[in-house]
Amino acid sequence: MLLSGVLEQYYEIDPKNSWMLAAAEKNLPIVVPGWEDSTMGNIFASYVIKNEIKASTMKSGIEYMAWLAKWYVENSSGKGVGFFQIGGGIAGDFPICVVPMLYQDMEMENIPFWSYFCQISDSTTSYGSYSGAVPNEKITWGKLDINTPKFIVESDATIVAPLIFAWLLNY
To answer: For site-directed labelling of 4, which of 74, 104, 106, 145 has its Cα 20 to 30 A away?
Structure first.
């Protein structure tokens, strides 16, 4: 949708400052599982209930995972693919599970681990907390390798993510 231009009239910022548009232009996937558990999900459900749109307009979580698995297989060779997690909970646990799913359930023994892991979360680490689980905890689940470079930034992602993206994009 971003690349089609249909949303340009609704832009609230200069497109050159949009990290979502930059990701779309570079064909980088932004995986947002569990969107149904949000205000947007509630609004979407209300339109479905009023028969103004069909529920099939959005992909299900299973369709999302199948798409991500295909994308990961096609893009993880060579230097690999890093994992940049913003927030906790399902935002991180869902997409990072693609590696153990491919290895364990699809029996793809040569599938590489994520090449790096970086998480921005305002949740402090705790025992088993999805939002605050430290990156090393993901090793035992088969999501990361013991040698995967791992970084965690405990801060407000709305401030930190744009700063990191600006640096990465040489802004």
So the answer is: 74
